[in-house]
């Protein structure tokens, strides 16, 4: 999206700002629905404001200008001269794949099980100063970056994404098709009532019984480094 407009899908929102080599995703926290709040509005407004501020302190300014009720995780990634800069709040995140193997995976932030860090205007929400800022140097041509919301990371193991990339890049890299394939498998896993998933494993570690995927909105963006 050359203009960098934010797009929404359910609770999730994203933008692709080609001119600034910057992409971002946000996952509106669904718990606000019980109060009659549009759970995707905050995420979409946040991403729209980040696009406006992307040349400055993007997340901080985007947060300050977002007045909608609700809260959201966020992950924003910028590429330049074979290095990557990312800022991440909560359980959205990104991975870097080289020769179909994951060589870097961002950390997630949670206060507890199924309670990710989240930006918002409520007293209980987190602020941009809580974000993890990451610099990854030494990116190589053909490296693939996958950015996703919690709906992806809760429902797919890294090895599953590696397998899709391995099979999907035999005849060259089509990042749009790659992102779609990954998202569809994440959706399938989210509705499977008998699947081992990252969310199920996290539930088990928290002392809860959960033998299935996590039904959630899913946002996936894929990109690759060119020479």
Task: Determine the strand fraction and express it as a percent band.
Answer: 25-35%
- The count of helical stretches stands at 6
Biggest sheet character: 7 strands, antiparallel
How much helix, percentage-wise, in residues? 25-40%
Identify low-pLDDT runs.
Answer: none
Shape: globular
| Structural class determined from secondary elements | alpha+beta
Beta strand count: 13
Give the class-level CATH name.
Alpha Beta
CATH level 3 topology: Phosphatase 2c, domain 1
The multimeric state of the shown protein is single chain
EC number: 3.1.3.16
Cofactor: Mn(2+); Mg(2+)
Organism: Quercus rubra
GO molecular function: metal ion binding; protein serine/threonine phosphatase activity
Polypeptide structure, described:
The structure is a single chain. This protein is of the alpha+beta class. The chain has one domain (7-224): Phosphatase 2c, domain 1, CATH 3.60.40.10. It is 26% helix and 29% strand. The chain contains six helices and 13 strands. Strands 1, 2, 3, 4, 5, 10 and 11 form a seven-stranded antiparallel β-sheet that branches. It has a four-stranded antiparallel β-sheet with strand order 7-6-12-13. It has a two-stranded antiparallel ribbon with strand order 8-9. A hairpin with a 4-residue loop joins β2 and β3 (22-28). The chain starts with 6 loop residues before the first strand and ends with a strand. 47% of the residues are buried. It is an enzyme of class 3 (hydrolase). This is Protein phosphatase. It catalyses: O-phospho-L-threonyl-[protein] + H2O = L-threonyl-[protein] + phosphate; O-phospho-L-seryl-[protein] + H2O = L-seryl-[protein] + phosphate. Keywords: Hydrolase, Magnesium, Manganese, Metal-binding, Protein phosphatase.
